[in-house]
Design brief:
Helix content: 25-40%
Number of helices: 2
Structural class: alpha/beta
Strand content: 5-15%
Number of domains: 1
Strand order of the largest sheet: 1-2-3
Order of helices and strands: EHEHE
């Protein structure tokens, strides 16, 4: 939590539980098999929609 980094992962099952138990700067779960272009566009949409608190304590899907 001290570095302010958002976690990007494909490991949905383990990370959803962890993200609901502790404060974090944001988690983005990428569906396996998505193209890089799809993931890049989804990530850009997430950043554009983020409020002043960013993605903190949210679990997002790309």
């Amino acid at each position: 939590m001290q570095h302010g980094l958002v976690l990007v992962t494909c490991n949905r099952d383990d990370v959803v539980k962890l993200g609901s138990e502790r404060p974090h700067h944001g988690i983005v779960i990428v569906s396996p098999g998505r193209s890089r272009a799809h993931v890049r566009a989804a990530m850009l949409r997430l950043v554009e929609r983020a409020t002043e608190t960013g993605l903190a304590n949210n679990i997002n899907f790309a």
